[in-house]
Write a structure and sequence with these properties.
The chain has about 220 residues and is α+β, with helices and mostly antiparallel strands. The protein has five helices and ten strands.
Length: about 220
């Protein structure tokens, strides 16, 4: 979810930066026979871009905070474990880098063109949201398994439902969940501490239908 949202934010960043450069430095726009400072509807363009950036970021932020709230309700799960220390460190690092980048983008856009303030504020505010997410959320990162699904809540939000599941296998430190109609979802193995993987497998076997779900190559976790 986070990677997809970041991809869309990156796509929106390029036209935002381009328009900010043309307007801020008053470059000529030959195709429109005008210059950046005289670009028609520039305020509306910046406002629309700012709204799109905000909607994407709000959607990501809400899902992350809701997932943390959900994973904190341990009594809702038959199995619950905190995210492994190794992954937690990596998540903190990536989120800090992301926050720094978003803040720098916001500052840079406003420095180049003050009229891009809506876009600049959108990027900067969600950089601050990343920091708050780490401060108040990193101690709640976890993996939960109910009778209906598995949820992973950290920087990413991953939900794997058991409905329609046909096979679970492992390859290169990734669990693959194969469903009907050739749908395949993945689960990062490093989310689960090594000493908790046996317990994870035991609970996975208990909540899935053995006649319908084939669990492959995970026997070593029982050793």
């Amino acid at each position: 979810m986070n990677r997809l949202t970041n991809s869309f934010l990156l796509v929106l960043f390029f036209p935002t930066l381009l328009i900010s450069l043309f307007v801020g430095f008053d470059f000529p726009i030959e195709i429109l026979r005008t210059s950046g400072a005289n670009l028609p509807y520039k305020s509306i363009i910046f406002l629309v871009l700012g709204i799109l950036i905000s909607l994407l970021s709000i959607n990501r932020s809400v899902k992350r905070w809701v997932s943390l709230y959900t994973i904190s309700q341990k009594d809702r799960f038959v199995y619950h474990v905190p995210i492994s220390l190794e992954r937690t460190k990596r998540v903190r690092l990536y989120t800090l880098l992301e926050a720094a980048l978003l803040l720098l983008v916001g500052i840079a856009l406003f420095s180049i063109c003050s009229e891009s303030i809506f876009c600049a504020m959108a990027y900067a505010l969600f950089g601050i949201d990343d920091i708050l997410f780490l401060i108040f959320g990193s101690n709640r990162f976890g993996v939960g398994m109910s009778k209906k699904a598995i949820i992973i809540a950290d920087r990413e939000v991953i939900v794997l439902y058991f409905s329609g599941l046909r096979k679970v296998s492992i390859s290169q430190r990734t669990l693959f969940f194969d469903y009907l109609q050739d749908l395949q979802l993945t689960f990062p193995v490093d989310c689960i501490p090594e000493d908790k993987r046996n317990e994870f497998l035991t609970n996975l076997e208990s909540v899935t239908d053995k006649d319908r779900v084939f669990i492959q190559n995970l026997g070593e976790w029982k050793m």
